[in-house]
Design brief:
By secondary structure, the chain is an alpha+beta fold. 56% of the residues lie in helices and 13% in strands. It contains four helices and two strands; from the N terminus they run E-E-H-H-H-H. The radius of gyration is 14 Å and the shape is elongated.
């Protein structure tokens, strides 16, 4: 079964309306490590594309794109809830805290 997921930029820094991109994921393929990895890479590329579109060029733009991409990935992976994908995301992002709590902690 195929499912479609729309990625919208999680954090909105420059644009009034966040960009969005349709991503079609084969849920059956998510049960295999190779399928989960392919879907993860597809989601990451779409998230980065959306976040680049939402952030104006400038001195902080790469930082904003990284934060936006990380948060968008967190939300997309949580929405899909596929165990192989969740595990892969945990492995690839185990050295960082979730974006939003980290931003609030830095502010306080």
């Amino acid at each position: 079964m195929l499912s479609s997921l729309i990625l919208a930029a999680a954090l909105q820094f420059a644009a009034d309306t966040p960009a969005a991109q349709d991503v079609t994921i084969d849920r059956a393929a998510l049960a295999t490590p190779a399928g989960a990895e392919a879907a993860y890479d597809q989601l990451h590329e779409a998230a980065r594309t959306v976040c680049i579109a939402d952030n104006a060029p400038g001195i902080w733009s790469e930082y904003r794109v990284r934060v936006c991409t990380a948060d968008t990935m967190d939300r997309a992976i949580a929405d899909l809830g596929a165990p192989q994908l969740v595990q892969l995301h945990a492995e690839r992002s185990d050295t960082r805290q979730p974006v939003i709590p980290r931003l609030y902690a830095a502010r306080d």
